[in-house]
Structure formats: C-alpha cells, structure tokens
Amino acid sequence: MPKPTFTDRSGAVWTFRDYRVATTGVQPVSLNHQSGEYRAFVAEHSDTILVYRFGDRSYRTSEPSVLEGQLLFARPVEPPRRHVPRISREAAPSPCLARRRPLADAGS
Questions:
Q1: How far apart are CA 105 and CA 47, in angstroms?
Q2: Short-list 25, 45, 44, 42, CA closest to 76
Q3: What digits encode the pLDDT tens for the residues 68-82?
Q4: Higher pLDDT, 96 or 29
Q5: Which helix (H) or strand (E) holds 14?
Q6: Using an 8 Å Cβ cutoff, are 32 and 61 in contact?
C-alpha cells in the first residue's frame, strides 16, 4: 500500500497518517476513520513533524484543500528530551580554604 503523501503550496511534500490515543499508547488507525483523534504530517525532506488534532466538526478526508487547512493549524512535535546530567551548584572545595587561619581579634 503506498504512503499517502501531500504537496503543500510551498512545494513541501508531507506523508500523513491518522492516530488515536488508547490506554496502551498511540495507535495508528485507517486514514479518515472516525476513531482517529490526530493526524501526523511528516515532512519528506526534513525532520519536521506536525500534528493536527481533529475537533468535533473536523473533516476526516484527504482532499488537498482540507489537508492544507489542517497543516495551518498543526503544531510541531517536541523532540524527545535527552538526559543531561545536572551540574552541581556547589563549588568544589578549594585548597586555599584548607590553609585559612582565623582572623586575629580586633581588641588584641
């Protein structure tokens, strides 16, 4: 089965697929199926992924004019966060502080 693709007005080519959210996670559904909650648009020539959420009155169709409108309202997918080790805010002990002597009393 060929991948459904769409070319927008600027000439970018997008592959699209419909999904629904289940207790086990995100599941693909047949294109234009009523149970679809989201449509993901994946750019063919970049790393861009846009997601459109179907509303109560959204058209679940693959007509070019409808796809163009869905792209206008689609939101970018956040890239997964990489684990970055936290940097301690405490300064490492300084060897100079180990040799520090108490100050002489002001009265002596």
A1: 67
A2: 42
A3: 899 988 898 876 566
A4: 29
A5: strand 13-22
A6: yes
Instruction: Please provide the size of the chain in residues.
Output: 108
Residue type, 25: G
Query: Which residue in this structure is represented by tokens 């790393």?
Result: 47
* Measured distance CA(84)–CA(22) in Å, rounded: 30
| CA-atom Rg of the chain in angstroms | 28
Q: Tokens 């861009």 correspond to what residue?
A: 48
What confidence tens digit (pLDDT) does each residue in 18-49 have? 999 999 989 999 999 999 999 999 999 888 99
**Helix extents (H) in the chain:** 64-73, 95-98
The confidence band for 98, taking pLDDT boundaries of 50, 70 and 90, is: low
Query: Among 14, 19, 11, which Cα is nearest to 46's?
Result: 14
Q: Is 66 exposed, middle or buried (0-12, 13-18, 19+ CB in 10 A)?
A: middle
- Where residue 11 falls (left for φ over 0; alpha for ψ -120 to 50; beta otherwise) is left
Phi, psi angles (nearest 5°) of residue 13: -100, 130
